[in-house]
Structures are given as structure tokens and as C-alpha cells.
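User: Sequence in, structure out. Go.
Assistant: Echoing your sequence, followed by the C-alpha cells.
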Amino acid sequence: MIKKQGSESPKFITLEEAASMEEGTRVTFAPGVQAMFSEALKNICYVKKVPLTRVLHPNMGVDKETGEDRQAKLYELTSQSSLPTMFHDKERPRNVWIEQLALAERIGAVDSLKLIPDNFEHRVEMFGLCAVVLGEDGLTWNMRILIDSPLGQKYGYSEEASSAAPGKIAEVIALIDSRLAAQEKNGSRYLVGDSLTAVDIYWATMSMTILPVPLEIMPKTQQNQGMLGFFEMNSKIPEIADALTKRIQEHQQYILTTYCETPAVLGGDPL
């Protein structure tokens, strides 16, 4: 079990400051908001004992005072605008989860848990499961297009895609549940093999979007209260609600409370 660290309010630096640094690991966040890919990367780094400097991720849209795109600098640095961006020492920025995971595994503490299996068969299983949770048309992708929003539009929202999304999410949940049931028969509490891997962290984190957790795990802030309400609504969509099982919930809470920092440290304005 990983020892919990203190949960003092975190400090954030600017994107320009992060880009100018030549040492350390820096990750972009939205203060007070559990932006799920940032939260997942934070949990990965927590397990790997990688100290993080938090960076303010620029908001979408145009600055009313200057008329400039708020994310222009981010795009200049990374050729994209999604969060999180991960900087490490003088290396190039990483924006894709699979590269961020590889980097965290490489720079993690010697005594930290290994999240990418050495066994190649287990590695194939782990990355395959990660893909249906994190990849295009997977769990998180379809969660984003459930409603018509700026983020939903970015990921291809349409009435047709939105209508199909609950069924696809339910299919992913059923796949994870089936995997957990098979692993349970083998005496394992984990999705791959007999020890923690990255997919346990990614799934437990991302599943909060369709299976809300207690405030003792994910605190409420002024910034995230609307998002928490959205996640609660997702859990009540009939196809999704029917797919969720006690086994899914137990795995989620076991991973989050055993291996991740709980309650989550978000910054922002707590409620």
C-alpha cells in the first residue's frame, strides 16, 4: 500500500514558466477541476513517486481584453491544446497518454511499483484495455459526447453519436467487469496479472465519470461541482446504470484509496 501524502493546497506556475524550466516534471492542470486525463496522469505519477510541478493550463477561447487566443502559446509549444501537457527536464513535451505513461515509468523512483508489465502477453492485455478506456471511441471519448458542449463538439458530438454513446460506454463497462470476474477466479484483484498495472489506475480514475465516488475520494470545489453533477447524471443513464456492478465499484474504490492520493488534491476553491 502506498502511504498517503499531505493534501495541502497546491501551487501553480504559468505555462511560460514551465516551458522555460530545464529541470523537473511539470504537468498542466485546471485548478479545482478533476480534468480526467490530468487526474489520471497525476495518479500515475503518484504511484511512480514522480514529484510534479503543477502548471496552469490555459483556458479555451479568446481573451476579452487582448482579443488573443488563450491557448496560442500552448499550441506553439505542443501543436495541440488538450490537457494535460507533460514537460520533463529539457525533453520534448508529451501530450498523449501512452507517451506520458512511458515517461513516468522511466523517471519513476527505483522503489516505485512497475506499471508496464515486463511480460509481453500481459503488456498486450494492459495496453489493449487502456485503449478502450482512453482511446478514440472508448469510454472517455464517448462520455464527452453525451452532451452538446464545447468539449463535446471538439470530440465529434452529433445527435447520432450521442445516442450511440451510452451503449458503447456500457460495452466497455461490461468488458472490464468480465475481466475482473475472470481475474477474481484466479485470485487477483487487478485487471492484468497478479499486481497493479497502469490500466487499474486509468480505469479507476476514468470510471469516476460514470460511477461517482464519495467526497472523501473526490472533494467538491466551486470549480468542479457542475462536473460532479454531470458524472452523477451519467451514472443514471439506463444503459450505463444496468452495466455497473458491485465488482466494478469495489475495484474502483480499492485502487483509488490504496494506491492514489485521497482525497484528491485539486486546488481551486473548496466547498
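User: And one key feature?
Assistant: The beta strands are 12-13, 25-29, 52-56, 86-88.
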